[in-house]
Amino acid sequence: MKKILLLLAFLPLCLWGNEGMWLPCCLSKQTQQIMKEMGLELSPSRLYNPGGAALANAVVSFGGFCSGVVVSADGLVFTNHHCGFDAIQQHSSVEHDYLRDGFVADSLSRELPNPDLFVSFLVRTENVTDRIVKAIPLSADETGRELIVDSISTLITQEAVQGDSLLHAEVSAFYAGNEYYLSVYKDYYDVRLVFAPPSSVGKFGGDTDNWVWPRHTGDFSVFRIYADKENEPAAYSPDNVPYHPDYFAPVSLGGYEQGSFCMTMGYPGTTSRYLSSFGVEERMNADNAAMINVRAIKQVIWKDAMNKHDDIRIKYASKYAQSANYWKNSIGMNEAIKELKVIEKKRKLEKQLQEWIRRNPEERSKYAQVLTELELGYRNRRKTARAMAYFSEAFANGPELITAALSVLNFDFEAEESDLERNMRRLLDIYVNMDLEIDKRVFVAMLKEYAAEVDAEFLPDVYPVIKKKFKGDYQAFVDDMYERSELGTPRGFERVVKADTTYVLFEDPAASFAIDMLVKFYEFNQSVSEANSKIEQNERLLNEAVREMEADKDFYPDANSTMRLSFGMVGGYSPGDAIEYTYYTTTKGIFDKIRQYKGDTDFEVLPSVVELLQRRDFGRYATKEGDMNVCFISDNDITGGNSGSGMFNGKGELIGLAFDGNWEAMSGDIVFEPKLQRCIGVDIRYVLYMIEKYGKASRLVDELKLVE
Q: pLDDT, tens digit, for every residue of 346-369?
């Protein structure tokens, strides 16, 4: 341990073991050495090895929005409960309430298919920067640059999958567009629900505990990948069989302790670590502010109805959880940006950059105006950016009638059969999970909130119509729209499909409103197109300049939904004076919170779960002290999209599933705070305990490769 601490003391900040979301394909010798010193026992080829057996082969992108890890020779996948929540909700009803009661399949035949769920395996990653950047003329403006990048990227992806229809490829920008990498994937489309704990386990603590430590949430669910008889991807069929992976992760029962090495592998969504101070200000005052204010109003309406009616609770459970998650994230981020003086830290770095440029102005002339141009660009679009953020939250992400109308307007009737079926299901899902009376209340609230938050110049033409025709009565306007529109039910779409000549889609009031919104949003974009181009260009130059200024450092790229590896140590932290948090929680804390929050639905637990925990029959999953750990924390660097990522020890054995960050470091997407930032994971022993003891699903545990 002393050797590790001495090593870390002499490393630059960007190379501390806990900071960085690294590409497994491209770990530098320096990073590899640090990981080894901290406790990694695997060679680089056992982490990532295209065509060979490696840990990366067991890591999946789950649905394109989460991560997961394959843990058995028969394709079992562990991920988070909140990642599987939508699938669990779709299978739930008042009669079979899998959200409340949980779900367990007692045989392969009882595992539940999910038509639109898929997992992606990374086949390989390749640096294609030279091929793309060399084709961009120095004289190209941002529009021209974008066209060239898109064209060459399309060509590269086509070449990468040529002759193999089972693969798909993507070229992603790194370092604000200074570098580009190709990722090739194989997707499996038959993914079935196997096990879900009750929400009082999987969501214990609810919104109250979300993004908070200490945590006692059993945030896990279990799925299985199915394939055809050749072990290749196939659409759902009763004839499909469990998928047999090239590699699956062993599961450790040995636990962890303070200072244990911990590594995560998954698909983090988006970070903005290199964003300018001006960009951080805009995110606070536009995107985050809109999300905080608009979603708070919408969620109160939803929650009120959900608390009164079980069918509404089930219908709205998934979208409420998704909305509330990033609503609270935005609140925490804005608070942390202020508390941790993130903008001041950014400005300090920018001042250092200016001084570096002045020391050698001729060689660094292309960076001379970067900060000036960024300040001007962000200032020029400030009001419009704020209006666009509120517009998106209030209308594009507000009333579901408008979401349905947009889906019908954009429906591609000439798509391939599989895409056509998927698009049809997604459209019908909107209707299945929508209540028109609730939606009307949301629509009225959104119209009021948008008008209250933006200047008059940003109001769409519908507002004068409401004022003149409906005497400013938003409720009357909404009631009239819902009464006259055919798009409140699938009937309108059916009339479009049947080419009903008595129905003109563009004259439907909901479709007409949606079209007006699209036009207005286009006008917004056009009005700030020049500022957007300047900002994109100069954020890229800023990224390049900072990396050139600190060329001795080993920089990691921002997250962009490609596979990443992060590493660190298990350990507690101190969020304030005289406050010390240990690195794990136990089932005792569940009972403490039940008593502390008596009557709060976030902390209600099914009697059957309470009885199980009270028996303390933890068996081989207990700690040395005879307790059951529920969650633990490490200083691994994660963000949204990492949910469900495997947390591995130095031998590559699974010890937990990452599912959250902590409140004190909610600005972590912008600046990593090594003393505060923590990754919260559910202990894999608690996962297995719940599967075996609560779900009585020993057959699933028997599939695993357990390391005692």
A: 999 999 999 999 999 888 999 999
